[in-house]
Amino acid sequence: MRRQTVCAAHVGDSTADANTDEVFFWFFEARSNAANAPLSLWLNGGPGSDSLIGLFQELGPCNVTEDLKTMVNEYAWNNVSNMLFLSQPIGVGFSYATTELGIYNATTGSIANATAATANGRFSLTDPYRYDTTYLAAGGTWEILQAFLVNLPTLDSTVTNKTFNLWTESYGGHYGPVFYEYFSEQNAMINNGSIGGCPLRMDTLGIGNGIIDGMTERYTQIPYYPEFTQHNTYGIQLVNDSIYNFMKTAYWIGGGCRDQILACAASDTSTAAGKLVCAQATNFCRGFVEEPYYEYGGRGVYDIRHPYNDPTPPTYFIDYLNTAAVQNALGVSINYTQDSSNLVGRGFSSTGDFVYRSLIADLEVILDAGVRVALYYGDADYICNWLGGQAVSEALNYTHAAQFRAALYSPFIVDGEEYGEVRQYGNFSFLRVYESGHEVPFYQPKASLEFFRRVLGNLIVSDGSEAVTPSYSSPGLPNATHTEPFVPLPPPTSTSSTAA
């Protein structure tokens, strides 16, 4: 474990667990009252996306500029919480099990053997099948979180509050419910003496533009891919009628996406045969329901206001992390190759993790335990669009589901400006954020920080005016009806961004 001052004079660290895996994390004290501030773990999704995306592009204490300098982020989330960013699972970012000198192929993610004279770096040898499901990744992340907590008094004796929040994004719609439920189960066993470890006070779960549910018979996000192409905030017809109807048909037709998802749900996913059923369902649903837009839409995956080759958010931090000065300061021994590992993603695809379990049930358990759950969606994102997120929020059958569905949409106001619409009942809220793509804190940094502050502080999301009571129900309108003007495409560029 190493204490360093990188990124606006905050603390960066890396550690190894008992299995000699090198797992990278970066910890930042809260900018004020760190001793009493809670601990929040931020995870990006992918699967295989590095949480350093969130650190540098979204909500960390600094951003990286084009000339590879750091710039303080005044809206960083460590304004209100101690923040931990973790590169997981093994093979993502600077986290690795084994390494070798070689020549890296950025297109395939593969590494060719090379002599020391011809190699262009030292790289992780990633086993894509070691952590190839969300549940396996949850166990690995818990181990690292416990190792961090054990060493926290040495790393930073100032931080003593063990109030814990998990906030995540994108494929974090899978990670969030499974990880939080797994962490809660382990935490309960620590508290009753069944296992050893450092207990936490589990507090909030936040999911931004999450792909949460791919398989429940009640609702699924997948049908909202074609619907979003016709009924988005900006009045943009993203594909023509023929492609739209093809996407819809691919979902509903006999033997199509829906039927394959149900077959996955009925299969034994502990077996190779069961995982194959789910992998085939994933490939069909993504290939024929989600992805025709990528081929024919011409607009951004993560922001429909932008072209398909979207230059935002910029990825300057990748080059920054490959500078010798930064790597020496962090104590890392491998090159930083990608912000999202294709190999790790391949492993998850092989098991059909995208559809093979519903996270609805996990969220229902978490909500019934009294945990504050906050879903938030930028309304310009296609891949995890807000229409699908709203459908998931309405599909949950927890104790207060009827009251949540009866709650109305209130304006989300920050310093007198309306940034979105929120429905809230007690400990559960769904926020749609205006003029924001996939990475909401990048597009709306001020509003995102205030949202985070209100949720952690147990305040009404709409205006933060008072504490949330168990029976609080947001007033307003029955539907989120806000629209924005049509956005023409800007001139084409050759730079593209990656998943979060």
UniProtKB/TrEMBL annotation:
Residues 471-500 are annotated as: Disordered. This is Carboxypeptidase. Its EC number is 3.4.16.-. GO terms for biological process: proteolysis. One of its GO terms (molecular function) is serine-type carboxypeptidase activity. Residues 471-482 have a biased composition (Polar residues). It is an enzyme of class 3 (hydrolase). One of its GO terms (cellular component) is fungal-type vacuole. Belongs to the peptidase S10 family. Pfam families: Peptidase_S10 (PF00450). Keywords: Carboxypeptidase, Glycoprotein, Hydrolase, Protease.
